[in-house]
TrEMBL record, chains A, B:
EC number: 3.4.16.-
Keywords tagged on the record: Carboxypeptidase, Disulfide bond, Glycoprotein, Hydrolase, Protease, Signal
Presence of keyword Disulfide bond: yes
Entry-linked PROSITE patterns: CARBOXYPEPT_SER_SER
Species in which this protein is naturally found: Triticum turgidum subsp. durum
Protein's UniProt name: Carboxypeptidase
GO BP annotations listed: proteolysis
InterPro entries documented for this protein: AB_hydrolase_fold, Peptidase_S10, Ser_caboxypep_ser_AS
GO cellular component, one term: vacuole
One annotated GO molecular function: serine-type carboxypeptidase activity
Pfam families cross-referenced by the UniProt entry: Peptidase_S10
Family affiliation: Belongs to the peptidase S10 family.
Length: 363, 363
């Protein structure tokens, strides 16, 4: 409801309006609230919440998809894509790897999930590279000084744990009215009535308070009933979950997926300092691929506006930036995000690329 | 008329409107079109245009100021500041050095130009550091690839000439509908009727076509007559001038000014890739000063909006960034630019800092 879905929640928190740039306009989309314990996804076994992790999330989602296709067999064999964002940098490649592994093990079920590619926005892929990219991003965008950059880089070049401590220091020093997920966005004023902070910087259509409208709307008992959801306190994140496993780096998984010839699309809003595009570059460098299509601007619309830049690599990896977009690209730049998604489909008419996208966004 | 002045030219190119954030609201300002040959500044000797350069510009401006103060002696002894932008990174320190040198030579004229500080926006200070800063800025803002950055940096780390060739290459590769002076600005459509390119990125009040309105307005014979200007083809830049001298670096001049205890304020719109704030950081590093006030956000208004970041150095140097502003800061962020200018005056009420600013913008 904030990103790629067909509806947006209005300021009144009770009514909806159409998202002109919904991804449902170009693909059938399954929205899955994952892992179990967030959103409307639940388990009857308390243990499930205490044994959550990357692996159980991938396994659960895989079982969900198999069951879903059994229930709607007309979708079996359709080209299928997985999409996510942020920590989706873990969820999406791992689910893809789970699907491909099962396809390899049992080739007779191969067509049951006809995975054709993955698409992840502002992905969290590698703890070290993300921290390094964050420091470099903050420096190159004027958020930290030369001295802070040098100190953090010197102190923190050793291991993940070191980095974490330093990044915490860094954040402590730089708290101000800047949203780390979109460093030029307006700020949502807290209070009984949410008001959007008028920003001189990027007064775009994106309403920074929209996550609050969604929260209120989805907790309306009438809405929960209409959705056939179990009555619950809907929340997109929860501290109730204990996390058992999370690899420090997704590089091995991504390498394996590329070896399996799975097209991988990574895209990054370039105003995000949390999972910055610079970090994604570093991780891509670690993949050791060659450039097949050099860095070039890509165009959003008939006014020839530059939507960002894009580069192609051996094995089908594509990396694209989305200009002036924060962490949640389809919130900040819905038109550009849809074009990016759609262009992939267009590009397939003749050359390589993805086709008939079915996206499964993860939170 | 585009930056700090009291009026803006309207779209009709014939009428004016008030600039609510004019620097004339907080200081008396002399606007000098410099060097001779640009704007309404002229010479009766053709030779002057063939012997132009940094030195003659400083000398001419110094003579102009002396004569001006003789004509308006009530301003003698007033606190005086010099301001400029871009290549003003050469003009302003050199004029300041000329004034201080004359003051030292003849202490009796010391009060005739009571220089209290200089203020330069997005300054061009050092050819090598500017080129290095530009490459790093373009990379960290997603305009060039890892590969282009590595290649340019490798090829071009030697001397100024090398850098220039590489930067030319780089520009050749990256031409697109992005304004290098404000990489998130809209684009002005060329044509018989100028229309502002609608941009999704930063639809602020700044009209990217405004330089054309100014051009037409100042070439209106009635306007030229009303200004008591000699009829001319007004232009803010000209290729008629041969440039005889320009030091590769202003670091020695800046060092000398700081030794003379002259307050130096440098500020940078952080959306500018031409004289990027990263380049100014590199040049400041070459000055070898210590930090006295660590990097911190500065606040524009009662809504606590962050206007940018600021850092203080030994000797009185201050460096401030202006958030989401391009090369011409007062055009892109007039409120923030005025606050920055005004805050300096406020800061003097009690501590150090500048007071009673008189700015002389150079083109």
């Amino acid at each position: 409801m904030m990103e790629v879905g067909p509806f947006r929640v209005n300021k009144d928190k009770r009514t909806l309006s159409e998202n002109m740039h919904a991804w449902t306009k170009v693909a059938n989309v399954i929205f899955l609230e994952s892992p179990v314990g967030v959103g409307f996804s639940y388990s009857n076994k308390t243990l499930d919440f205490h044994l959550s992790g990357d692996k159980s999330t991938a396994d659960d989602t895989f079982v969900f998809l198999l069951n879903w296709l059994e229930r709607f067999p007309e979708y079996k064999g359709r080209p299928f894509y997985i999409s996510g964002e942020s920590y989706g940098g873990h969820y999406v490649p791992q689910l893809a790897a789970t699907i491909l592994s099962h396809n390899l093990e049992n080739s007779s079920t191969r067509t049951s999930i006809n995975l054709q590619g993955i698409l992840v926005g502002n992905p969290y892929l590698d703890a070290n590279m993300n921290a390094k990219g964050e420091v470099d991003y903050l420096w190159s965008h004027g958020m930290i000084s030369d001295e802070a950059w040098a100190s953090i880089t010197k102190k923190c070049s050793l291991d993940q744990r070191g980095y974490k401590a330093c990044v915490t220091d860094m954040h402590g020093a730089d708290q101000s009215n800047i949203d780390p997920y979109d460093i030029y966005a307006s700020v949502c004023l807290e209070g009984p009535i949410e008001t959007q902070y008028p920003s001189r910087y990027t007064p775009r259509s994106y309403d920074i308070c929209s996550d609050r409208y969604v929260y209120v709307y989805l907790n309306d008992p009438r809405v929960q009933k209409a959705l056939h959801a179990r009555p619950t306190e809907w929340t997109h994140c929860t501290s109730e979950i204990a996390w058992m496993d999370a690899p420090a780096s997704m590089v091995p998984t991504l390498k394996w997926l590329i070896e399996q010839h799975l097209p991988v699309w990574l895209y990054s809003g370039d105003f995000d300092s949390v999972c910055p595009f610079i970090a994604t570059r570093y991780t891509i460098k670690d993949l050791g691929l060659n450039v097949t299509e050099p860095w070039r601007p890509w165009i959003v619309n008939e006014r020839d506006e530059v939507g960002g830049h894009v580069q192609g690599y051996t094995g089908g990896l594509v990396f694209a930036t989305v200009r002036a977009a924060g962490h949640a690209v389809p919130s900040h730049q819905p038109e550009a995000a849809l074009v990016l998604m759609h262009r992939k489909r267009l590009s397939s008419k003749g050359s390589s690329g993805l086709d008939g996208a079915v996206a499964v966004p993860t939170p």
